[in-house]
């Protein structure tokens, strides 16, 4: 699985992108976020308030119940501020 | 049409191209967003727009397609810049052309309102107090929300 | 700013001038009205815009002043042409610039809606069936009416 | 009093402008319209349906009850169709 981070999430996690192997028992966006939190102190801190974290799976917005698999491109970022 | 680019754009040229040779068009509504030199009470000397290449284009295309499904448009346009910008610089241009004035005006407002809450861009402002990531505003969510469900039938 | 003129205008130049060197501005909304080649089911080969010199400028200035009283605008513009125009030609440009996007968008819609029912212009269309004076449309009255009284407090 | 006509009102009346002496007993827009109707068959026909006639006095929109005097510039025209 490819995981991308943007804006302050990128700064807090410390990388823009990482290639990870998603455990077989993690099947939803919510489960993936839990699992990512456990990867490091930086991940945990960056993802501590999920109300300010948006998730895209294969470049489409996703919710915590949506499915996710090891083939997906996942992105985590704050609420958008373009325009 | 969707364009995501680092460089500036020529508003007159873009709006001319939009309507050229289509004499069904009776009105072209457009909105240009520019960099302000203050944000709240902080002074801003520059900003950097980060985005998510690929998803940005995909989401802007969806916003445009939604506008064209809701209003009878002859042409539409979204150009959004990324990279470092200074106060007064143009950030975004949206435009909608239609036989009917109200359709053009409403679609234009819709394009910018939806873009603001859907397109994956993030602003990092540079100012007196260093770099600050701009926070999403509740007003922007409210502005986008007024277009949901029943708004499509107001025309 | 108000201009009533026979000649065409340069949209890019006009919008640039409106915002230049004012970095409080965050958004510029504009509307361009153009000549269509059909009106109802008649084909239109050209039209002539007649107006009432003096009263036109006075009424346009009132429309602009009303917009500036209702919304916090940094700049505004109305340019309206008169004389003979052909399909695709620009008739009118209105624009509103503000620190705030919604103010610019709403003021722009207000400017064109009010102008349509207040400024003394009359269109004579030339087409297959000779010259036809365009009739005022009930939709235009309705569009203008939605800005009366309480609309000012929606912002 | 200067009276201006625009668009199809100008065509129907047959002149763009006329200088008239307003009778002393005519004091309102409504009275003036009645008086103008009596000036000629063309005036009468042009002003027969007042629902499609707008009046400006000194370049401001006026209603039938508004006052009018011999010093005024009056304009008669159809509902406007600019923009």
The gist of it:
With 83 residues, chain A is α+β, with helices and mostly antiparallel strands. Chain A has helices at 7-13, 29-37, 41-46, and strands at 2-5, 17-19, 54-57, 60-62, 73-77. Chain A has a five-stranded mixed beta sheet with strand order 2-1-5-3-4.
Summarize the structure in words:
The complex is a heterotetramer, with 2 copies of chain A (83 residues) and 2 copies of chain B (155 residues). Chain A is built from 3 helices and 5 strands, in the order E-H-E-H-H-E-E-E. Chain A has helices at residues 7-13, 29-37, 41-46; strands at 2-5, 17-19, 54-57, 60-62, 73-77. Chain A has a 5-stranded mixed sheet with strand order 2-1-5-3-4. The model of chain B is unreliable at 150-155 (pLDDT under 50). Chain B is globular. The longest helix of chain B has 18 residues, at 101-118. In chain B, strands 3, 4, 6, 8 and 9 form a 5-stranded antiparallel sheet that branches. In chain B, helix 2 (55-70) packs antiparallel against helix 3. Chains in contact: A-B, B-C, C-D. Chain B binds chain C through residues 10-13, 15-16, 19-38, 87-88, 99, 101-102, 104-105, 108-109, 112, 139, 143, and chain C through 10-13, 15-16, 19-38, 87-88, 99, 101-102, 104-105, 108-109, 112, 139, 143.
Secondary-structure map with pairings?
The complex is a heterotetramer, with 2 copies of chain A (83 residues) and 2 copies of chain B (155 residues).
Chain A: E1 2-5, H1 7-13, E2 17-19, H2 29-37, H3 41-46, E3 54-57, E4 60-62, E5 73-77
Parallel strand pairs in A: 1-5
Antiparallel strand pairs in A: 1-2, 3-4, 3-5
Chain B: E1 2-5, H1 11-19, E2 27-34, E3 38-39, E4 42-51, H2 55-70, E5 73-81, E6 83-85, E7 90-98, H3 101-118, E8 121-127, E9 130-133, H4 138-145
Helix pairs in contact in B: 2-3, 3-4
């Amino acid at each position: 699985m490819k995981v991308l981070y943007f804006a302050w999430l990128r700064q807090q996690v410390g990388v823009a992108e990482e290639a990870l192997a998603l455990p077989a028992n993690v099947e939803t966006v919510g489960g993936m976020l839990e699992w990512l939190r456990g990867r490091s102190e930086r991940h945990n801190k960056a993802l501590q308030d999920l109300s300010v974290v948006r998730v895209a799976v294969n470049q489409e917005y996703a919710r915590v119940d949506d499915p996710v698999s090891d083939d997906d491109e996942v992105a985590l970022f704050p609420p958008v501020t373009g325009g | 049409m969707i364009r995501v680019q680092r460089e500036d754009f020529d508003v007159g040229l873009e709006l001319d191209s939009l309507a050229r040779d289509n004499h069904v068009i009776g009105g072209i509504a457009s909105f240009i967003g520019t960099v302000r030199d203050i944000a709240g009470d902080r002074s801003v000397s520059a900003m950097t727009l980060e985005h998510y290449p690929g998803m940005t284009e995909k989401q802007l295309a969806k916003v445009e397609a939604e506008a064209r499904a809701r209003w009878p448009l002859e042409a539409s346009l979204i150009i959004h810049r990324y990279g470092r910008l200074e106060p007064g610089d143009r950030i975004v241009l949206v435009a909608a052309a239609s036989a009917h004035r109200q359709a053009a005006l409403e679609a234009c407002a819709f394009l910018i309102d939806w873009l603001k809450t859907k397109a994956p861009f993030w602003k990092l402002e540079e100012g007196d107090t260093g770099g600050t990531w701009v926070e999403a505003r509740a007003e922007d969510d409210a502005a986008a929300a007024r277009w949901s469900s029943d708004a499509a039938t107001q025309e």
